[in-house]
Amino acid sequence: MKKAFITGITGQDGSYLAELLLSKGYEVHGMIRRSSSFNTGRIDHIYRDPHEADTRLFLHYGDLNDASSVNRLLREIHPDEIYNLGAQSHVRVSFDVPEYTGEVDALGTVRILEGIQEAGITTRFYQASSSELYGKVLETPQKETTPFYPRSPYACAKAYAFYITVNYRESYNMFACNGILFNHESPRRGETFVTRKITRAAARIKLGLQDRLYLGNLEAKRDWGFAGDYVEAMWRMLQADHADDYVVATGETHSVREFAEQVFASLGMQLAWKGEGEREQGVDVKSGKTLIEIDPRYFRPAEVDLLLGDATKARRELGWEPKTTFPQLVKMMTDSDLAIAERELRADGK
Ligand code: NDP
Ligand code: GDR
Fold it and tell me: Is the pTM of this model over 0.95?
């Protein structure tokens, strides 16, 4: 039985990847952080009591900021595959906590790579690299050969992680890959990322639980895919004959404005836009009510305007293709948040 070790198992991608690896017969070990409140909500449905005979999912306390915990887990688990998904993953927040973001996202990566060396284990390593590396657009669509131009402390930290992964591959002949993943979303997406923020707010507005949604830059364009499809690409990278770096994307781009329009329309609210800049508002055509307002606090000191990925290499060499279309993704997330809002309404006794 193959053993996998996942950092960031409690996050969006970690939960889908753990499901995928368990379905393929792996024994899965995940690093979790001590938290004052429960942080395992995304994996509770696959977790079994460790005393049960056929348990294959094991959780271990650790932290990417704590090299001794990383080293201990690598020595004890001896994984065949390591997926480094753990990160302070919010781009806007990285401007507030730049040093911490560097500690976890950049140095956390070298802690694992060095831990592999120290433990003397042979393993395959996946690094969660990001389309944020492309930042300021130098070429469209972006592919593996497009130069990087990071635009946030998050992206700068991920640039270090990208290059240190390449460096350990070249220096020590380690099987280490970077997946340069474009934005991917799901009903399990964190509530402060823009897609989930929109689907959650639109569902709550529809049911009268909330009046308004406050957003930042509506013009930013992203290549949005489904997280469930993207974890398959991570796994395929580690099954390949040789280690390499791959772009994973859908090849379609949409603006934040367009995403919002589609979500609200799917709930029967057609948006019309009034005003300009920070005064712009999204108004429901039927009722005339203002549903969306701009709040400058959500603007970033430096923005990434346009992301559009070319995943030809992943298709050609890994046989990977996205399965979920943009309208399917919008529907999946909106339906899920509507069901959550309905439960909230019932719990309120309204
Ligand atoms: P999430 O924010 O949903 O999950 C991040 C995970 O990292 C959580 O499990 C979190 O734990 C864990 N974590 C945070 N800090 C630490 C730490 N100090 N030590 C150990 N674990 C830590 O991110 P996603 O699932 O969306 O993304 C997974 C990875 O892929 C991240 O590295 C992200 O930067 C990268 N990425 C994501 C993309 C996307 O569109 N989703 C695109 C490209 C790259 P806790 O639950 O306790 O907070
Ligand atoms: P991103 O995702 O920064 O691309 O990083 P996010 O959903 O946070 O932002 C996407 C775009 O939407 C604009 N935006 C807003 N964003 C947020 N969060 N909240 C708002 O209210 C809002 N209004 C407009 C942003 O300015 C931005 O242009 C994600 C993360 O998962 C990273 O970890 C990952 O590496 C990249 O995707 C690829």
Answer: yes
Residue 297 has a pLDDT of: 96
Question: Which of 86-107 are b and which e, b meaning 16 or more Cβ less than 10 Å from the residue's Cβ?
Answer: bbbbbbbbbeeebeebbbbbbb
Q: What confidence tier does 350 reach under pLDDT thresholds 50, 70, 90? A: low
CA of 204 to the centre of ligand 2 (A): 21
Write down the CATH number for the domain with range 194-220+255-305+325-348.
Answer: 3.90.25.10
User: Is 3-186+224-252 in CATH node 3.40.50.720?
Assistant: yes
Residues 43-100 have pLDDT tens digits of 999 998 888 878 999 999 999 999 999 999 999 999 999 999 999 999 999 999 999 9
Centroid of ligand 2 to alpha carbon of 89 (angstroms): 10
**pLDDT of 166 higher than 80:** yes
Q: What is the pLDDT of residue 49?
A: 84
Query: How many A from CA of 304 to the centre of ligand 2?
Result: 9
Listed by start position, the domains of the chain span: 3-186+224-252, 194-220+255-305+325-348
Name the average pLDDT for the chain: 97
What ligand 1 atom has the least distance to the C-alpha of 129?
Answer: 44
User: What is the ipTM score, two decimals?
Assistant: 0.99
What is the Cα–Cα distance from 229 to 186, expressed in whole angstroms?
A: 10
Tell me how far apart the alpha carbons of residues 295 and 279 are, in angstroms, rounded to a whole number. Answer: 9
Q: How many Å lie between the centroid of ligand 2 and the Cα of residue 225?
A: 14
Listing DSSP states for 298-330 in one string gives: GS-SS---B--B--HHHHHHH-----S-HHHHH
User: Measuring from atom 34 of ligand 1, which residue has the nearest CA?
Assistant: 89
Q: Which helix (H) or strand (E) holds 27?
A: strand 27-32
Q: Which ligand is nearest to the CA of 86?
A: 1
